Amino acid sequence: MVKQLIRMAALAIVIAASSAAGAQTLRMWGPEQITEPLIAELWNGIKAEFEAANPGVKVEFIPPTGTISNGAVQAAIQSGVGPDVILTNSGIGRIAVVRNARQVVALTGEYEKRRWKDKIYPWLYSELQRQFGGEIYEVPDGLDALGIWYHKDMFAEQGWKIPATWKEFAALMQAMQTAGMQPLAIGPRTTGSAGHLFGNLLQAASGREAVGKALRGELAWDDRTMVAGAARLRDLVEAGFIQKRMAGLDLEGASRLWFSKRAAMFVAGPWFTANARKAGYDLANAGFAAMPSDLPGETVPTGGVGWSWLVPVNSRQPELALKWIDFILSDAVMRKRAQHVASTMLYPRELKGIEPPTLVLKEIFAVAAGGVGYNPSVYLPGSVLDTYFQVIQGLISAQISGEEGMKQIQAKMSEAK
Question: What is the CATH number of domain 144-303+366-416?
């Protein structure tokens, strides 16, 4: 009897050891808002489905302490005990930072092997191929579509509407100011907020082709075509449509102006739905429109890759990380995310027959259906970004002219070549 118990105990130890050896843990960095109940509900559900489809696998979320922009991602990778797969804010300027530091794996071959190239928009795949000499280091998770948010009830009461041309838009802002309303709010101390508005103004004034050439170094930033957008921002400040004191506001402060209806319009993307929910703003009252342009066909949102998946070079579970990305790109998961109440972005391919959780998201999807332009904040080289955001601050605080600002950006672009 004693020998039998010993044998049973030994067998139990062997079984336990075998189970432990077979168990795998995937450490995932992101998303940033995982502590918010609705977002936690969505991601915990995705986690459970992945674990169910992969017996013996456990997914461990690592709540982010930041992004590539503030060095948190780089520090996590360097720690040696960091994540196996990362979801973070992206764009060529940010990806270049971790790519140049050799902290992330090139995923080029996986686009063919795993057919990822068929799971994103063709134009998006082409855009990724144009970067880093054809090597691809990211898998887009979400796209941005940046445009004008406005209060539907306020516009209805005043008889306002977002017009088709810039000339009419300027007249609308004058009408808002005459009615005692601040036309536009911006929080440039948060670099993203600064870039969202400025990118819209550049595109509306110069067009997508010109902005794209400037980002690729084929057109000087101080060319008169590009200076027009910077001059337009300074004109808005001089007219009082954007107040000089807003140079001291961050995204949260500027958002409060809009949520409290002390400002009529705000430039943001689909992610602003999360900010609105947190502030208790009624999203049924939010409207969205592209920034008006006098150039034919240029009244479209700016955008680019907003969030991407990366695999660190020191991932302990590289194959499992790729399997996770496969799962995230699956139709079932993408559709689930797009229709969940926590949805805050455009997805990297067209999803037919879905019903977005809020009307404003539906409007954003519709406005962006014909494509988006360039948000320079996610396309500029990392070494140029600080100057780019400083120029925006200088324009809003009326310390520099549009021409002076664009000369500063061009000087940094020349150094980055």
Answer: 3.40.190.10
